[in-house]
Write a structure and sequence with these properties.
Chain lengths: ~130, ~260
């Protein structure tokens, strides 16, 4: 998956992570949104049986956006993101993203909020099923 | 189903009322409408290998039918899952073409983020279907291997323990409080007063997370599935039977110790 050219102006800095390093820790606070420039990460979540892997993400995919849409609501990260290989990520300009988000209609904001909620519910369900 | 037209911003929207149990969207049908839940609750489910697989229970504010945005060329596509009203439900039907136009005119970066979330929901739905399918097959094998397994009962102890309950998958943020009246290593009997938690989604098949403190001051937490709802001795009391899905090792140890005769 290549990276769309229009995304580059939003990348404020780059970070590199070694295999096994956590880029985002579940339960922590933070509103950075990341794009994978190179490498592979895995989405992980804590369950009653310990941390389980949910799905991989690869180049061009974005993570961390859920807390951005709920900025200021004290929402914590609901999954961990761990580098599966040596990984280079771009950090997107949160202020600019929020400014762009503010320009869309209330209807679309409501749609995006619903999508985030749906993803959270389905992820929780997958975790429950995986640990039963 | 009843409808009435209302004016909302620049788009004329229709509001539809569905009765409890009505199908709002049928998997496989062609459809373009997008719905926002105003009141009530809706279960999203799919069917695979002759089994109904619940994907999510959603409530007011949530949107249904949004996957049409993933289809760039033509909005006429088959629904990938079904949606059924769990209560009497009021939805707002959004004008699909105008909304699609609005969606496509979003700043590209926001659209990129929204598209990715849609893709991730689709992938997570597939994982849920696969895991549910595996679970159904596993249970089938267990029954074949040990036909008496489902008939076993655990020693049940009478108790009077306040509990706090939250739904596992529902979008509802409400909590339910009540008393655990009996408990075993397999499940518990809960006494509740529905009037105190009128919006709590307690229905047979729903899954919950419950925490309580045992008389020996040990905390336990367990996920469970609601298997029965009975009338209590008084009209405002309900007795819920729950079957444990999972007890952590710590909770199982505490409960096992407490249940020792």
């Amino acid at each position: 998956m290549s990276i769309e050219k229009y995304l580059y102006p939003y990348i404020t800095q780059e970070e590199e992570y070694e295999k096994g390093e956590a880029i985002i820790k579940e339960g922590s606070r933070g509103d950075w949104v990341y794009i994978i420039l190179e490498g592979l990460v895995k989405i992980k979540k804590m369950s009653l049986k310990g941390q389980i892997t949910i799905a991989p993400l690869t180049e061009g995919e974005i993570f961390g956006e859920a807390t951005l849409w709920q900025a200021g609501q004290g929402v914590t990260r609901n999954v961990s993101i761990v580098a599966e290989t040596r990984t280079r990520v771009g950090l997107l300009d949160t202020a600019l993203l929020l400014k762009e988000y503010e320009s869309i209609s209330p209807r679309l904001k409501s749609l995006i909020s619903s999508l985030i909620q749906r993803l959270t519910i389905t992820t929780q369900k997958a975790v429950r099923l995986a640990t039963e | 189903m009843n409808s009435n037209e209302t004016k909302d911003d620049d788009l004329a929207v229709v509001r539809l009322k569905y009765k409890k149990g009505d199908l709002i969207i049928k998997e496989g049908d062609y459809g373009v409408s997008i719905y926002k839940i105003i009141e009530g609750s809706v279960i999203i489910f799919t069917e695979a290998n002759d089994a109904v697989i619940p994907l999510a229970t959603i409530g007011p504010g949530a949107v249904i039918g949004e996957t049409i945005f993933l289809n760039d060329k033509n909005m006429m596509e088959r629904r990938s899952s079904s949606a059924r009203a769990l209560d009497d439900t009021l939805v707002e039907v959004w004008h699909p073409k105008l909304l699609k136009m609005e969606y496509e005119q979003m700043p590209p970066v926001i659209r990129y983020l929204a598209d990715q979330t849609l893709t991730h929901i689709g992938r997570m739905n597939k994982i849920v279907v696969k895991l549910t399918d595996q679970k159904i097959k596993r249970r089938g094998h267990q029954r074949e291997a040990d036909p008496w397994a489902t008939k076993r009962r655990y020693y049940r102890k009478r108790v009077n323990l306040p509990f706090l309950c939250t739904p596992l998958y529902s979008s509802s943020k409400s909590t339910l409080k009540g008393l655990i009246r009996d408990i075993s290593l397999g499940g518990a009997g809960l006494e509740i007063r529905p009037v105190l938690s009128p919006v709590f989604p307690y229905r047979v098949g729903e899954e919950f997370l419950i925490s309580t403190t045992l008389p020996n001051n040990r905390n336990i937490e367990f996920s469970c599935r609601l298997v029965s709802i009975k009338e209590g001795k008084f009209h405002d009391i309900r007795i819920l039977g729950v079957s444990f899905i999972e007890l952590s090792e710590h909770s199982a140890k505490n409960l096992g110790f407490f249940l020792m005769p």
